[in-house]
Amino acid sequence: MAPKKGADIALSPNPLVQYLQKPAKDFTKADLIKYITDNGIKMLNFRYVGGDGKLKTLNIVITGLQQLDSLLSCGERVDGSSLFTYIDAKSSDLYVVPRHKTAFLNPFTDIPTLDILCAYYDKDGNPLASAPENIMMKAHKNLEEKTGYSLDVMGELEYYVIADKHDFYPATDQKGYHESLPYAKFEMIRKECMQAIAQAGGLIKYAHSEVGNFTQGDCYYEQNEIEFNPTYIEDAADQLIIAKWMIRMIGYKHGVQISFAPKITVGKAGSGMHIHMKLHKKGKTATVDKGKLSDAAKKAIAGILDITPALTAFGNTNPTSYLRLVPHQEAPTNICWGDRNRSVLIRVPLGWVGVKDMIKKVNPNYDDELKDFSDRQTFEFRCPDGSANIHLLLAGLCVGARHGLEMKNALEMAEKLYVDVNIFHEENKGRLAQLKGLPLSCYESAESLLHLRSHFEKDDVFSPKVIDGVAAMLMAYKDKGLSEKLYGKNDKIGELVEQYIHHM
Q1: pLDDT in tens, 403-461
Q2: Could you tell me the CATH superfamily of domain 136-499?
Q3: Which of 47, 104, 276, 494 has its CA 20 to 30 A from that of 204?
Q4: Of 248, 229, 197, 383, the residue nearest 305 (C-alpha)
Q5: For the purposes of burial, counting CB atoms within 10 Å of the CB of 203, is it exposed (0-12), middle (13-18) or buried (19 or more)?
């Protein structure tokens, strides 16, 4: 039985979708004015991501219909030199133009407020070429135009809740995966986060407690994860940006700290931000072909692997990122891929391929049509973490996918880099030795980006100024060889972790 027409709107948690009776992608200026006037909205928040990858805010009091119409038609001015290090003060003015489809009701203020994500435009009314979200969109458009393929994307957000220590119902150290109340203490916060994100348009797949679960000193640390569904790349980036902000805000409201830091302390599970991708062509899945991972997907994987050392410049952007990328922490260390293998860099997880009758086996009375759900198959890039510049990372993955789809030896490379064993086990050390390792520091990551920059600058997707700016930022940490210098010095590692615990 097919879902009834309009069921998506009826079930949507987004109050604007419910009120306007249309999906967010179809919101117009007139729709937003109607919602604002009918619901007593008093303020607008224009929001946009700066060059540091953090969400910025412009608060605006609504004073009349003419002002509101103007704001929703042409946006506002901002100081670009304060938002981006590579913009000179003498020509720094930028426009921030609201993207109507992103509007959501702010859940954190007593003053009825509508928040809207904005795009950067330059003095000539063109998208700011160096703005991260515009680089991402250009990279995705370039992928489509040059290869005919597109990417749907989703992220996994791992984070720690840090609170005062509790002695009751103690959790088992590093055994928090999918734990339930009362052993996992902050399920209520996680569910509040899920609800707020969903009401803002986030397409949440599910959420759960993660492995990290421990006490240290007077503090209790609990790791959680919120995972999204694959969607159009711009929407995927939007929901990750908004989700990180909302999770922090809800933690702040409840008097606990939230950290997306890649490493939280010595010897405990770090937090990643894995990115799942689905390949499409002409509106149909191109990730699976005849019940197997398609050649196109293998080529895209090979291309991403080939430029991965440079991708860490966007996905692993502070020195503690490289304390996470170590063996036996379910984090990758070497450039390879495999099926259902959590020791590899790119993992092809279970994807409902060839198993459409499972529901009938579990429920003998199931009388609906058995459907093929293999379009849910993804491949997962596992090294990024919460320090990632989300837009530049997704742009880089598009660059990698195009590179692979155009490589003459892509399938050969994919076969060579395929791994079907746990590379961290002693008996597989020979196979491990055959695989190139990831950069070991921000400095090495920057060196890789500069070495591979031609891939990113091809067709002017990334400007040289952006590549140089990212590399300079990473090299400024001066962390080359830092992991070796800190080995065994837990106090020094702790100081470094504390320094970057709220980096992004």
Answers
A1: 999 999 999 999 999 999 888 888 988 998 999 999 999 999 999 999 999 999 999 99
A2: Glutamine synthetase/guanido kinase, catalytic domain (3.30.590.10)
A3: 47
A4: 383
A5: middle
Domain 14-128: CATH superfamily, name plus number:
Glutamine synthetase, N-terminal domain (3.10.20.70)
What gap in Å lies between CA 318 and CA 503, rounded to an integer? 8
pTM, two decimal places: 0.95
Q: For residues 17 and 26, what is the distance between their CA atoms, to the nearest angstrom?
A: 10
Please name the amino acid found at residue 169: Y
Assess contact for 137 and 235: CB atoms under 8 A.
no
CA 348 to chain centre: 18
Q: Name 119's bridge partners.
A: 97
β-bridge mates for residue 338, sequence order:
347
What is the separation of C-alpha 390 from the centre of its chain, rounded to a whole number of angstroms? 6
Q: Convert the pLDDT of each residue in 91-123 to its tens digit.
A: 588 999 999 999 999 999 999 999 999 999 999
64, with CB counted inside 10 A (0-12, 13-18, 19+), is: exposed
Q: How far apart are CA 320 and CA 406, in angstroms?
A: 34
Q: What is the 3-state secondary structure (H, E, C) of 369-405?
A: CCCCCHHHCCEEECCCECCCCHHHHHHHHHHHHHHHH
Q: Which amino acid is at 218?
A: D
Q: Count CB atoms within 10 A of the CB of residue 179.
A: 20
Report residue 155: phi and psi, to 5°.
-120, 160
**CA–CA distance, 344 with 418 (Å, rounded to integer):** 9
For the chain, domain boundaries? 14-128, 136-499
